[in-house]
């Protein structure tokens, strides 16, 4: 896409704001290179990755990018076999740790929503846990190597500590011995060696090596001969320490070099994810949404806002073009918002085509344009000696030479800067030529001739920015289908122009012209309202379809979970009964053995009676598994394939798939499962209609829940907060949420303690913990539900 339009529409300002949400310089470089993608697949793919990142932020909090820095230079040096500095190695370790944590961060269970694009990106991550651990064990900070880095380093530093203690004891002894010859009774260091501050006149009284003197020359810093050997030993140990540190850094650098391909790939993925999540955070800050992208150039922006204007003052606008018309002519007074409207349309398209969320309502649609041309603003050039008209005409010539049917063209004050009659005629000719050649056009103008052009031609529509005559101020609202009406008489009257002058002016204009303008405006307003209602109905229909699809999917999932739970419970119950029977048979077998060892026949008779009682009790227990409290229908003697039956044990209808086999079992389709049941367990399906309707009704209520993943308690007292959390946990549990966030704030800790005490006893809570860094810290509690 041409750089001129990106500059005129201020896309670079959007990118500068986007950079604020990136953690690394590498991600900021990706943002700097960001521009609209040149094919529809890439646009939708990058919008989808932004949507997935936003969902991850909402459901799981910030990704684990803590401690991640731009270490491209360090990786480049490692790739050449250089020995890295501790800080560079530490930052590479942070990249490896973040890559490993990201894999865990995006992992979801089978029944949760997957994040296909981000999961595909993360599939290239190869964890290097051993190297990561070695780095963090060996290096404590950018300028400190840990004692744990190697046993040799530990021993050297221990020896250094002991040797320094010995030297200090020896120095203190010498200070006492030479106290009369010293400037001060203390020691100091010169070049890592312990020295004493000796008065210059007492130099001969303290034998040793002179290392330094004071600026005045009154003090000499002398290393006593008794310390020379000890200082030499310390110096040797420090040299050994440095050599060992160099060896450790070289070894870690070599390991990074050996895995350089994996390190580079992991780092590239981390920086790409940093870029993607920056897009999501920026879009969330804008209260933006992911737009639909139309391949045929249809534009339908709902409540669009300019992203660089303060959210509290910007006026949302609705813009639609591309269905019944491809050219929109906007009229209205100066400072009324026409230019802002043009810039908003252009900038929102550039953002969307670059994979960014746009500040507009959900279900907004942008067109896929390979080029956006913008002739906006006064670009008069003194150096080139071009007038305003010449400057605009130069831009228009460039647009005409380079546009195609996949272009969006934005004209501000088309034809201005020259004679009105000639300018209007030229503007109409330019618009008509571009429109016939298939491009999409939005143009602003003051010329009435263009209003007439829009009225006469199919495929062209009028629009205006609203002006409040009462306050003499623009409202900045865009009204499509309504041409801008001249308000000169009303404005002049309110500003104090005498009535007789206004009346004379009215008489100079034909009354038919005034009536015609009023009639046209009235008709256009009615048409605009009808189109607005139609668009709103279409949007509501689309939203309803999405909600229906969403809850049908939830209903299916809950039904599957219910089916699995019931089948599992039945299997568990059967297993318990089977084990009980086996245990009872074993007991009876043991009793018979005892009888053979000397019991009488009367005892045997009694044992048989007890065995029969036990067997009858177990059979009754087994029958209760399949008994329903109410009459559930007539017992079936035979069934045929395709027949609908009712299974009381599952409280569900099923379809017969096969005839009874030799064991009297029938294969049926119950929901999504194929199972085998005994013929005697089947009932006629009509007998359970009432109970089943009740159950389905109850399930529908559950499926219609839309539960937030968090609840905010700030400002509540303990009693109100406890009640709110209890009700919220019930809703979250019934809504199928696995993990929720309770926001209680930090404060004095009273509210947090009350909530913690309640969570310990709550039946839906599986586990709970305070938030970690990036989740809200001690100001939130993360609850895992059963």
Automatic annotation (TrEMBL):
Keywords: ATP-binding, Coiled coil, DNA-binding, Endonuclease, Hydrolase, Nuclease, Nucleotide-binding, RNA-binding, rRNA-binding. CDD domains: ABC_MutS2, ATP-synt_Fo_b. The keyword Nuclease applies. InterPro entries: DNA_mismatch_repair_MutS_C (IPR000432), DNA_mismatch_repair_MutS_core (IPR007696), DNA_mismatch_repair_MutS_sf (IPR036187), MSSS (IPR046893), MutS (IPR045076), MutS2 (IPR005747), P-loop_NTPase (IPR027417), Smr_dom (IPR002625). Residues 523-631 form a coiled coil. Pfam families: MSSS (PF20297), MutS_V (PF00488), Smr (PF01713). Its EC number is 3.1.-.-, 3.6.4.-. GO terms for biological process: mismatch repair; negative regulation of DNA recombination; rescue of stalled ribosome. ATP binds at residues 332-339. It comes from the Bacteria. GO terms for molecular function: ATP binding; ATP hydrolysis activity; ATP-dependent DNA damage sensor activity; endonuclease activity; mismatched DNA binding; ribosomal large subunit binding; rRNA binding. SUPFAM superfamilies: DNA repair protein MutS, domain III (SSF48334), P-loop containing nucleoside triphosphate hydrolases (SSF52540), SMR domain-like (SSF160443). Residues 711-786 form the Smr domain. Belongs to the DNA mismatch repair MutS family. MutS2 subfamily. Endonuclease that is involved in the suppression of homologous recombination and thus may have a key role in the control of bacterial genetic diversity. Acts as a ribosome collision sensor, splitting the ribosome into its 2 subunits. Detects stalled/collided 70S ribosomes which it binds and splits by an ATP-hydrolysis driven conformational change. Acts upstream of the ribosome quality control system (RQC), a ribosome-associated complex that mediates the extraction of incompletely synthesized nascent chains from stalled ribosomes and their subsequent degradation. Probably generates substrates for RQC. Homodimer. Binds to stalled ribosomes, contacting rRNA. This is Endonuclease MutS2.
């Amino acid at each position: 896409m041409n750089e001129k339009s990106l500059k005129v529409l201020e896309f670079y300002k959007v990118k500068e704001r986007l950079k604020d949400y990136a953690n690394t310089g590498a991600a900021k470089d990706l943002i700097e290179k960001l521009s609209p993608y040149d094919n529809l697949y890439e646009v939708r793919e990058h919008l989808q990755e932004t949507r997935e990142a936003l969902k991850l932020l909402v459901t799981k909090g910030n990704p684990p990018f803590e401690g991640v820095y731009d270490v491209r230079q360090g990786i480049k040096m490692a790739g050449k076999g250089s020995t890295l500095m501790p800080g560079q190695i530490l930052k590479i370790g942070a990249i490896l740790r973040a890559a490993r944590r990201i894999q865990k961060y995006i992992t979801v269970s089978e029944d949760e929503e997957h994040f296909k694009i981000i999961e595909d990106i993360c599939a290239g991550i190869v964890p290097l846990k051993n190297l990561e651990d070695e780095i963090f064990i060996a290096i404590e900070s950018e300028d400190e190597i840990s004692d744990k880095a190697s046993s040799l380093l530990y021993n050297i530093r221990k020896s250094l500590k002991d040797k320094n203690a010995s030297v200090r004891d020896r120095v203190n002894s010498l200070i006492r011995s030479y106290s009369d010859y010293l400037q001060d009774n203390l020691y100091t260091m010169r070049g890592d060696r312990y020295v004493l501050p000796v008065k210059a006149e007492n130099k001969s009284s303290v034998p040793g090596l002179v290392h330094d003197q004071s600026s005045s020359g009154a003090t000499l810093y002398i290393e006593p001969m008794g310390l020379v050997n000890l200082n030499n030993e310390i110096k040797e140990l420090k040299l050994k320490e440095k050599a060992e540190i160099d060896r450790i850094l070289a070894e870690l650098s070599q390991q990074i070099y050996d895995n350089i391909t994996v390190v580079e790939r992991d780092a590239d993925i981390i920086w790409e994810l940093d870029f993607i999540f920056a897009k999501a955070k920026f879009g969330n800050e804008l209260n933006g949404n992911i737009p639909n992208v139309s391949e045929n150039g249809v534009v339908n922006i709902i409540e669009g806002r300019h992203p660089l204007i303060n959210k509290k003052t910007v006026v949302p606008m609705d813009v639609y073009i591309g269905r019944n018309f491809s050219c929109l002519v906007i009229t209205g007074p100066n400072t009324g918002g026409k230019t802002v409207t043009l810039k908003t349309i252009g900038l929102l398209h550039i953002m969307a085509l670059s994979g960014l969320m746009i500040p507009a309502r959900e279900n907004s649609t942008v067109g896929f344009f390979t080029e956006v041309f913008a002739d906006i603003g006064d670009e008069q050039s003194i150096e080139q000696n071009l007038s305003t008209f010449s400057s605009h005409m130069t831009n228009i010539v460039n647009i005409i030479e380079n546009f195609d049917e996949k272009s969006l063209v934005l004209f501000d004050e088309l034809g201005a800067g020259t004679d009105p009659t000639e300018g209007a005629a030229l503007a109409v000719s330019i618009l008509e030529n571009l429109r016939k050649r298939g491009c999409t056009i939005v143009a602003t103008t003051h010329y009435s001739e263009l209003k007439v052009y829009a009225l006469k031609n199919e495929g062209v529509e009028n629009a205006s920015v609203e002006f409040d005559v009462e306050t003499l101020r623009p409202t900045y609202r865009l009204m499509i289908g309504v041409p801008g009406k001249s308000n000169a008489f009303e404005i002049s009257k309110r500003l104090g122009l005498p009535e007789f002058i206004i009346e004379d002016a009215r008489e100079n204009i034909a009354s038919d012209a005034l009536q015609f303008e009023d009639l046209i405006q009235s008709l256009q307003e009615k048409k605009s309202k009808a189109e607005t209602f139609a668009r709103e109905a279409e949007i509501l229909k689309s939203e309803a379809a999405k909600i229906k699809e969403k809850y049908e999917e939830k209903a299916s999932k809950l039904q599957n979970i219910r089916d699995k739970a019931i089948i599992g419970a039945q299997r568990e119950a059967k297993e318990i009964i089977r084990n009980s029977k086996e245990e009872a048979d074993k007991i009876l077998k043991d009793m018979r053995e005892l009888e053979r060892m000397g019991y009488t026949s009367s005892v045997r008779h009694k044992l048989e009676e007890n065995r029969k009682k036990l067997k009858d009790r177990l059979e009754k227990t087994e029958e209760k598994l399949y008994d329903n409290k109410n009459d559930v229908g007539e017992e079936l003697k035979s069934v045929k394939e395709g027949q609908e039956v009712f299974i009381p044990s599952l409280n569900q209808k099923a379809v017969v798939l096969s005839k009874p086999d030799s064991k009297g079992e029938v294969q049926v389709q119950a929901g999504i499962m194929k199972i085998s049941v005994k013929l005697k367990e089947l009932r006629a399906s009509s007998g359970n209609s009432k109970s089943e309707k009740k159950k389905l009704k109850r399930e529908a209520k559950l499926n219609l829940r839309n539960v937030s993943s968090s609840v905010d308690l700030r400002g509540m007292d303990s009693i109100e907060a406890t009640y709110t959390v209890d009700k919220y946990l019930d809703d979250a549990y019934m809504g199928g949420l696995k993990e929720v966030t309770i926001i209680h704030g930090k404060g004095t800790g009273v509210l947090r303690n009350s909530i913690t005490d309640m969570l310990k006893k709550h039946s839906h809570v599986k586990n709970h913990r305070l938030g970690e860094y990036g989740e809200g810290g001690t100001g939130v509690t993360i609850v895992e539900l059963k």
